[in-house]
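Blinded run. Sample ID left blank on purpose so nobody reads anything into the name before looking at the predicted structure. Input follows.
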Amino acid sequence: MKIKLSKLMILIFIFCSICLTSCTYEKDSFFHKKNNSLSKLDKIKLKLIWQNKIGKNNIILNKLNPFYYKGFLYLANSNGYICCINVKTGKIIWHINLINRYCFFSSCKYEYITSGPIISNNYLYVGNKQGKIFAINIKTKSIVWTQNVFSEILSNFVIRKNILVVNSIGNILQGLNKNNGKILWTVNLGDFNTFAIRGLSTPVLFFDNIITGSDNGLISSRIVSNGSLVWEQNLLRFSDTNNFIDINDIDVQPVIYNEVVYATSYNGTFTALNLSTGDVIWEKIYFTHKNFIVDKNNIYLIDSKNRILALNALNGNLIWKQDQFKNNKIDNLFIYKKKIFFTNNKGFLYWIDPKKGFLLGNKRIDKYKINFILLIKNKLIIQTLYNKIYLFKILIT
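Blinded prediction complete.
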């Protein structure tokens, strides 16, 4: 009788074990189906520190990104309003309006600020629709110099060795003395494309070289001190019904990683180039018109269908694809604490797993589109379509 009871207990034990295993498996399967292995992931919370607004409602922002400098945040809107904000408190320390203060003609209202701000040695630089650059002393809030360049400025400035580099409409790259505005050199990046998309690639610096894309599909490396050519490569590789007028603009800023230049053209050519020679390492077709990121030999980009793609940086092959957001307009990719963050046009911030692309969480920041994201350590500066500014602290539990 004892033997039979023992066998019965063993059978019951085995049966319960199978049931528990089955339940656990079903639970794990459920989480994976929902793209969320919650038990193994850190939870992210965003704590609002402060919020503010700069200027009037205005949606013509172009390349006007927030700029952080020595504990202060500098912002501009296209109506000429520039302000300095204390990052700790969110309070506006000072502000000026270039158009109202330094312009006395009715035509000035059309001179929208289109580029900047950027700061170097207490000088703040912005550019406008008319191709004029303003250098402002952030201590005295006064204009130090102004300079007219070739044409409208639609890319951000970069600075190296006291030289302010400007990429303007018409494929003209110029180097200016950042202290007095004197034009030091001017180069033509190639023939102007009549059918170009409105926008320009922001140059990227690497030691004393500058890598620049143009609207004719050419990417080049030049010496920043004089603009002389080191190498040039054409990203135009094909022409088809999707690109019947040969729109070959390189409007996305190139990325340099492990001595490789990664660049993309509007025609879908995504290319890895040797930083020293410009020789093509590999090329693929991925249609992306937004800034991308490279991290730990992986490339993360948003394609024209609003899908997030992860690529192998060594060969360009697809690793995974996240298409859950293809009905949204998403932008502003960045990486923090092994998570990929991005935004959509409805004011949401999302974060996903970089290994598989699984959705991990989201938070609605505003009811309008988020235009720019600036990460300062564990602080997140967010600028929305109508010039609202938020500062969140990222908490991981």
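Unblinding after everyone has recorded impressions. The radius of gyration is 25 Å.
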